Amino acid sequence: MSSGKRAPLEPRSVFDLPVLISSLAEVGKNAEHARTIQKHALKSGTPAGVSWGDVCKGQDLPKAVVNMLDKDFVRCTSKIVERRESKDGTIKLIIQLQDKMEVETVIIPMSPGYSTVCLSSQVGCAMGCTFCATGMLGLKGNLTAGEICEQLVHAKDVAGPSNTIRNVVFMGMGEPLHNYDNVLTAAQTFVDQKTFSLPSSGVTISTVGVVHGIKKLARDAPWVRLAFSLHSPEQETRKVIIPSANKFPLEDIIDAIDYYTEKSKAKVMIEFTVLKGTNDDEETAHKMGKLLTGKHVQVNLIPYNPTSVKEEYQIPSEEAVETMWQILVKSYNLKCTIRQQHGVDIGGACGQLALTRDGGIVLPENTYKPPVRSYPNAPRDSKKHSPRNSTSRQSYMPLALCLLAFVLSFYVQYFYLS
User: Fold this and answer.
1) Is position 104 annotated as part of the catalytic site?
2) SS3 content of the chain, % helix, strand, coil (to 5)
3) What sign results for the dihedral spanned by CA atoms 362, 366, 369, 375?
């Protein structure tokens, strides 16, 4: 198993803030230049052969800074080697790093003109979750803060100016809290008003339950949204599904989540992958309800997406998932949603990221335009919508207007014309 260490990048990523600040200090310049440089790199595209002086034109960068940037830094150290579109509009990017390793990034359409991007934090993963294809890869290395940010740069380039990216979720390859410093630096870059300008509520970090990482995140960045992969309300079953649970007892994780919600004042998303015959029964739902009652959380039920893992897990029935939802909502008054599938046919859904190149349509370079179609919101809010046959409130608007017009007409005729 890899320690997570990889060779230093050469040239370096301009989006790696600590490296950029260090290089500025080496030429005797202020760290305040760093965000300005990143802002212009993000907007410009920085084609090969163009001087950083031209990229940051009008900012009066000192010549020493321009020379340093031209010598040591590029906009992106990584490149897209494949972009594949699902039948539902999801796009999976396979991104090759400078050392030829690869990670995956997924652009998920949430509503017309808006997307969420699922980011990787590591090459592979050491957690070994038995239902997850990424876990089969093992851990090959940590991504730098710059490489993490570059995923969003690539996603924005692919999505185009007409498709706004409102949220990023660290739910791709890797355990984010095992690459804590780089993930946090990237998250801070995402919400900085000079760079990506995402709302603070637009960054979610998911973990299988690294207790010390959860507590540290609560102290360092309580504005980040936290998601916890539960998958079973019982410690012994969790250890079968998630081998790392041997190190982090469920009781300790729940205590850490309580600490996080106290610091952040925000709900923690409880992710629960539903596996047929393993954790999709009513008893499990009741145990989960009892475990989470009184906690500041929201449950997200995730029907298992088929993968090539050796364990022969199966997709749960829709009825089983709905029954779990009913129990959690009606018996325990928990807010609960059922995640809609995105990108299953291209290996881009939860638990499927393993660098596969199958399904969907391969998009030629620089030709993607966001498809003009209406996408359902996901995950859907199960307190507002039935888990089956969810209907948009907008569809009732014409009927409501007709009824209002009829009532007004009747009122006028009866009281004023009679």
Assistant:
1) yes
2) 40, 20, 45
3) positive
Measured at the CA of 88, the angle between CA 84 and CA 90, to 5 degrees, comes to 45
Which residues does 157 contact at the CB level (< 8 Å), separation at least 6? 45
pLDDT in tens, the chain (418 residues): 455 678 889 999 999 999 999 999 999 998 989 999 999 898 876 566 678 888 887 677 889 999 999 999 999 999 999 999 999 999 999 999 999 999 999 999 999 999 999 999 999 999 999 999 999 899 999 999 999 999 999 999 999 888 999 999 999 999 999 999 999 999 999 999 999 999 999 999 999 999 999 999 999 999 999 999 999 999 999 999 999 999 999 999 999 999 999 999 999 999 999 999 999 999 999 999 999 999 999 999 999 999 988 778 999 999 999 999 999 999 999 999 999 989 999 999 999 899 999 999 999 876 444 433 333 333 444 333 334 433 333 444 555 555 555 555 544 344 434 4
Q: Which residues of 138-171 are buried (b: 16+ CB within 10 A; e: fewer)?
A: ebbbbbbbbbbbbbbbbbbebbeeebebebbbbb
Among residues 85, 104, 150, 175, the one annotated as catalytic is: 104
Whether 350 is a known active-site residue: answer yes
Q: Are 229 and 209 in contact (CB under 8 A)?
A: yes
Q: Do residues 94 and 357 lie in contact, with contact meaning Cβ atoms separated by under 8 Å?
A: yes
Angstrom distances, CA of residue 120 to CA of 82, 104, 106, 141, 297: 16, 7, 9, 11, 24
Beta bridge partners of 274: 303
